[in-house]
Amino acid sequence: xxxxxxxxxxxxxxxxxxxxxxxxxxxxxxxxxxxxxxxxxxxxxxxxxxxxxxxxxxxxxxxxxxxxxxxxxxxxxxxxxxxxxxxxxxxxxxxxxxxxxxxxxxxxxxxxxxxxxxxxxxxxxxxxxxxxxxxxxxxxxxxxxxxxxxxxxxxxxxxxxxxxxxxxxxxxxxxxxxxxxxxxxxxxxxxxxxxxxxxxxxxxxxxxxxxxxxxxxxxxxxxxxxxxxxxxxxxxxxxxxx
Length: 242
Hints:
Layout: H1 8-24, E1 41-43, E2 46-49, E3 52-54, H2 57-64, H3 72-84, H4 92-95, H5 97-100, H6 113-126, E4 132-133, E5 142-147, E6 152-160, E7 163-167, E8 173-176, H7 185-193, E9 197-200, H8 208-227, H9 234-237
């Protein structure tokens, strides 16, 4: 959770409002994991600053330093790194299509000129990735759609001082499993106050949840083996092992 304000006085008011909401819903914070009065920093693999949400420069540099993949394993690593930066790569699915096709079972690995062109295009964009700005209430929102025969991409834009800026916002819908923490009444009331819809997976087939949990345990076990020494850095290191 991040509380961001435009001024110091407003920040104190915003924190008071957040603490009151937490107290109202009987939620607690771990003080050892709380940081106050910072101008920016990493959060869930992203960089937060006064300008907005920025791409993690370490993740961008990891792709910029990559050589053209020569094996399927290297393509998998590239795909994972691109996915972690998907919010800063418009039309990701369409541009990456030649590369992603290599992930399908093929008899022989071939890195084609189309793959190389896509790879270089990503490098060019990550050299100066866009910044996701906070939306301004009084400004119109512009939705750009890019539609092809294989994918659909969308982006939210606001125009400020004759410049277009990517914006972020609160999700209208979140999707979770049937975990107790997600079906709790306090959590539901919290989402209702924010006008966020809550959709639960496997509503019609709850028996599938057990199968999903079993599969998740296997995945979690393997991830812990590979990321055991990267405590607190899962968001940064996860794309490297996918």
